[in-house]
Amino acid sequence: MTIPGKSTQFHKKEERKERILKSERSRKEKFNEEEQSVYRTRYLRISQVAKGKSDCDPNQKRQPTSKQTHNMRVQRGTKRKEEKKRGKLSK
Known about the structure:
single chain, 2 helices, 76% helix
């Protein structure tokens, strides 16, 4: 024997729970999409800077690392020494 009022109340509660769950799911999905888009833009910006491209000037080159500059200096020094040995450099 079922009471007619009780069953509809139960169904209404279930429907309300489902609606709440659905709205929470959609809210989470929206948040995830926004977070991913922010992450994408950040990542792209960082990767562009790493490649030597910045937002202001696309032709701007990346500054060489300290190791690279050191190697360039050493190379320049060895070239100068070789030229001195050959007598091309007058110093």
